[in-house]
Amino acid sequence: MNSRLWGATAILLLSPLASSHPTSRPDSHAPIGVMGDHFHKPGEVMLSYRYMHMDMAGSRSDTSSISPTEIATTIPNRFFGTPGQPPTLRVVPTEMTMDMHMFGVMYAPMERLTLMGMFNYIDKEMTHTTFQGGMGTTELGSFTTKASGMGDTTLAGLIKIGSNEQNRLHATIGVSLPTGDIKETDQILTPMGGTPSPRLPYPMQLGSGTYDLITGLSYATFRDRWSFGSQWRSTFRLGANDEDYSLGDEHELTSWGSYLAAPIMSISARLKAYRRDNIDGIDPQIVAPVQTADPDNQAMDRLDASIGVNFGDGSWRGHRISAEFTVPLHQKLDGPQLETDWGVTVGYQFTF
Predict the structure, then answer these.
(1) Hey, what's the torsion of the CAs at 345, 292, 201, 187, to 10 degrees?
(2) How distant is the alpha carbon of residue 16 from its chain centre?
(3) In CATH, which superfamily holds the domain spanning 3-351?
(4) Count of CB atoms within 10 A of residue 57's CB?
(5) What is the rounded CA–CA span in Å between residue 23 and residue 115?
(6) Which residue pairs from 19-23 have beta carbons closer than 8 angstroms and sit at least 24 positions apart in sequence?
(7) Residues of 228-265 as b/e, b for ≥16 C-beta within 10 angstroms?
(8) For residue 191, what is the DSSP state?
C-alpha cells in the first residue's frame, strides 16, 4: 500500500475521540471481525464462536488485473531448469474460498489482566486451470485442491493500561502455536497430463509451522449513542519452520465507529489497512509451475472496508450476536496472486 493510504489510515486512528462505556451496551465490544478488542472484569469469562468466509477470484499483479492466458504465456516459472518444469507458469489459480470456524475463551484472573485463547478449524478450496505443454494457450483442463483441519492456536494476555467511564486502553502480547499442518497434499493436473498428489503450495497450507509473536494496542471511547475504536496488531515469525521457511510478518491497523440504533442493537463501519511480507526461505517439496508455489509472490498491501451489526446485552444477559461484511477498497499484490473479492464474519459471544 502506498504511503498516502497508510498515512490516511493513521490519521483516522489517531484522531481525537471523545466520550460512556457501560458494559450493557451492544457496542461495548468492537465489530466481530476485530480480535482481542476488550478486557474483562476480574473473574469474568467469555466464550465465543466466529464463522468467517473469504472469497477470492481472478489474479492481480501489483494493482492491475492479469488474465490466466497472460500468466501462462508471459510470467516466468522460477523453477524452470528443474526436470519437467516449463519456462512459464502453466497452472493458474482462478478462484479460492476459505471457511474458518473460530472458538475463543477469555478469562480475567485479576483487574489488569485478561487471558485469551483462540482455536480454529479451516476449510480451503482452490480451483485451477492447467494449460497444455510448455507453450501456447490451449487449456488441458481444470482441477480443485482442498485442505482442511486445525489451524494455528493463539494464546495471549490483554494488559489493561487505563480505563474510565468513557475510555479504555490495553496492550496485547501473545504467541501463535504451530498446530496447523504445513504438509497438506492433494491431486493436481500437470501440463503434461499427469495427476500426482504433491505437497500443496503455501496458501493452501493450514498453519505457519513456526512460533509467532503477537503484539498489539487497542483503544475504545464511548458517547451517548456513538462509540469509536482503533487497534494495531502485528504477527512476527520467530525463525524458520521444519521445512526451512517462514511466512511473512503481518501487520493490521484498523479503526471503527458504531452507532447505538436501539438499546439492544448497534451498527458499525470499519476500515482496516493490512500488510503481509513475502515468505523467507522455500519448502524444497513445493515445486510447481504455479504462482502460489513462489515465495516471492505472497506479499500484499490491502485496505478493507466493513459494515456490521451487533445485537445483545441489556436484557440479553451477556449474550451477543454479530455480523460483518467486508470488501477491499485497494489491493497491491506482489504477484500474480489471487485477489480478494469479499468476506463475511458472523459470531456469537457469551459473557458470565
Answers:
(1) 100
(2) 28
(3) monomeric porin ompg (2.40.160.40)
(4) 15
(5) 18
(6) 19/166, 19/167, 19/221, 19/222, 19/223, 20/165, 20/166, 20/222, 20/223, 20/224, 21/165, 21/166, 21/167, 21/168, 21/220, 21/221, 21/222, 21/227, 22/222, 23/313
(7) bbbbbbbbebeeebebebbbbbbbbbbbbbbebeeebe
(8) T
pLDDT in tens, 157-216: 999 999 988 999 999 999 999 999 999 999 999 999 999 999 999 999 999 999 999 999
Give the other-Cβ count within 10 Å of 84's Cβ: 12
In this structure, what are the phi and psi dihedrals at residue 313, rounded to the nearest 5 degrees? 60, -170
| Residue 6, pLDDT above cutoff 80 | no
Cα separation, 217 vs 17, in Å, equals 16
H helices, E strands: number in the chain: 2, 15
- pLDDT value of residue 25: 86
Contacts by 69-72, CB closer than 8 A, 24 or more apart: 69/131, 69/137, 71/291, 71/336, 72/131, 72/137
Retrieve residue 287's grid coordinates. Answer: 515445486
- pLDDT of amino acid 2: 55
* DSSP alpha helix (H) spans, the chain: 3-14, 68-74
Please spell the DSSP secondary structure of 81-114, one letter per residue.
TBTT--SB--EEEEEEEEEEEEEEEEEEEETTEE
Length of the chain (residues): 352
Neighbours of 334 (CB within 10 A): 18
Supply 242's cell numbers: 521444519
Which grid coordinates belong to 120?
A: 480454529
Contact between residue 156 and residue 138 where contact means Cβ atoms under 8 Å apart = no
Q: How far apart are the first and last CA of the chain?
A: 41
